[in-house]
């Protein structure tokens, strides 16, 4: 008899890895009956033709937002104390005191953080979150659906959303085994793992060690190292066009070589547009020296700002914008949904550009899969002023300590050096490929093409217990 697996999508983040890759196809070949338990506005049945069960209720307990915000701050405070650091709290962002509601919530978070940044306080807040979410209509709806459909396993694609908590609790209270996938390389040190499941699926041994370090309530027997489907498409050569086809599709000049500038969200890099401008000025300068270069600008899929528009217009002689093929189904960042077509687009951009430049992005791994270097900008812009976040903070984060050496990327730490560094990359005198591939293996694991299969293999072993 086929095992019925619920692939739980608390938000749109999991679509990329678990609906748009070969993950479902492999699972069905292995004999699983797969239902997408869908909490997103995206219609999986309508758009992809997959079996789905929609969760209609979205309500949280009134105090869940307060408790989850407090939990993150309490854990980051505790990490700083426990590991004798000061960096964990830099993962926090200021909260708002404007308006009566924001003032009440923020003051409550502050009080909990001040008094509860210890093991006992964190445990108490975790219990309060569960207690509150068990009393919500979302919990009741989830429990009713689970009782009716009787899945053998609930696999949550993202441990971060508050929207996941009630549904996972409902499954656990019915005795249905649950698991979650740690979807990003910075989830664990950021203290963003809000749900507590029976099993955890991580990318690599490195991430397993992090999980056991930051989540002491997790036992080693609960953790499975599987890799991530996120990078599988980069090794699928069937997605690649020829160079001529790619250039023609996007109106590129066959006589030019292109550099990719990968945009960031406004939180990570609030002055990102000026780094694009610096690269454009470098390209103009090198073109005057006899090079034939252009820039492909790929915006961050969840950046809704118009901050690049003036730069794109001013430097349209060297910058071509190729937008990600994502689809908005709402106004929030986690309601911008990826498409299968964007896997191919991203792979072709990696394949047919010389290298990528950005600020602290995991695109270093995407380009590493194509044997291309990554250039990290790490200098202040003159537009930096009080209230604007300095991008240099990103490189001090814990997850950046995973790199095997500084040579895992190329660094521009002074604007005046940018042109020479770019020239050296183009001339084959500078490369980060060797070390970035080592970094890729540390974070992603040694078998990046086998993640989907490994996930199903792990699920099979769990269900045989």
UniProtKB/TrEMBL annotation:
Record SUPFAM superfamilies? UDP-Glycosyltransferase/glycogen phosphorylase
Query: Record's superkingdom?
Result: Bacteria
What is the protein name stated in its UniProt record? UDP-glycosyltransferase
Q: Which organism is it from?
A: Flavobacterium hungaricum
